[in-house]
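Q: Fold this one first, please.
A: Sequence and structure below.
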Amino acid sequence: MGEGGNIADPNAHASRHGRGKEDPIDYSIISNLFDSGDVSCDVGTEGSATRTTVYSLPSNWFSLIPLAVYMEVGGSVASGETVSISVKVVLDDGSEYEIASYSVTGDTGSSTESAPFANLLSALRSAGDTKDGSRVTSVVADVSSSASDTSATATVRVVGVRT
């Protein structure tokens, strides 16, 4: 095989891009881990959820793949008060799908969802939607309390891969 065509030739790959030059593809940005860190979420009252953006896709990336979601209810939750957290992915067409949820009544606590993409599949199947080619552009949390006034707090953290 000619120059650059011999697989055994260690310079074959480089010759396709100009001998001795760096490969034009920066493999360090093909994908990497993202971690939202602990995000404090506002808690809506009387069952009306307040939305907090937990993580948004940076402009130089294509899509998010959430791999785990941590949800925590803290502060003071009154006896009989229910605090609910619903974590959703938002796609580039504006559609939203729940990937994790947690609810607690009269107490505090936390939960980790380790299969958010499996939950996305279930949500898509339930809705009868096909989203081939769609991109996940953000992760949001809708948090509500059944009480008219609350001292409850909510924290959400998402870890995944951005591509």
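Q: Good. Now the second chain.
A: Here it is, same layout.
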Amino acid sequence: MFASGSISPSLSWKRRVLLNLERAMEWTGMGTAYVKVRGIGGAIALMYHSIAPPELARWIDPGVRKTPEVFEEQMAFLARHRRPISLTQLLAELDRGETPPAGTVVVTFDDGYLDNLTVAAPILARYGIPATWYLPTGLIARGENPWIDRLYTAFETRTQNRLSLDLGSWDLADATQRSTAFQGLTEALIPATYGERERLMTRVIDRLQPVATPPRLILSWDEIRAALREFPNLEMGLHGTDHVDLSHSSPGVVRSQIEGCIADYRRELGRDPVHFAFPYNRHSTPARAMLRELGLRSAMGSGDDESIGLDTDRFAIARIDPPEERSLFRFYTSGAFPSLPKTILGRAA
């Protein structure tokens, strides 16, 4: 989950330069030529969250959602021009010592949004694309919406513009202060424990007095079971129990979050889980070791290289947030990313 979208800070000049360079690599065909000449291989994992229909989009932070139109266009492109495979198939190929060919793509979804079933799954089925859904099992059991969307709705439907907390005081009628406040709250909520997070969210909502509450945005276990029956190309993974940052949590919290979601998964789906995604892509050496100890086979998390190959740590598989711009989406899934930009900029490929 990433809190960004309409209230993100502007891109830095370095980021703008890099994006323009990557666009040029796609427009000129440099990326395609580079892959062929260098014999580049490796898979890319895409990280989606919500694919909200118009009637639900108003409740979901723009930084974690794609429109159905953009998502369908991207899946159509993958089906025609790339090699979309399941995460399980990717791991099997790596186990055999096979480097995935350039253009291999794995599609994943975090946070268990209901629209993954109502909108994304039929699109995936239409194009024959497999996907992995990572489930925050405690949120699903409670029918609890992701905190980023509850915060976003509180800001968007507030009746009060003055927000004063221990973290600071802001006039939300001012766009700059509103952005600063949202970003500051996000930075405080990500590393918080579940209890700390809920207490801070309660204070924010009490002070802003929003006029609306989001409908249920998250899947139920019955809906997950129905999805597995109806869409055989789907596989389920784990995303912790309460979607807390496991990179700085105490060993006891890490174990309870991991063991708790494994127990939930086994009880509700009657099978053993094999895939995990670290909340916020944040992880630690003890957390990765614990997943291995408990029998899981992979974990998504921040890593040094988005290209997945034989040398990739199976418990720190990096993903990319798919850009909506067509040229960038094509470049990022071509096999030339991230090696070619690194080469041109003088860093190790």
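Q: Anything worth noting on the second one?
A: Residues 158-208 form one domain.
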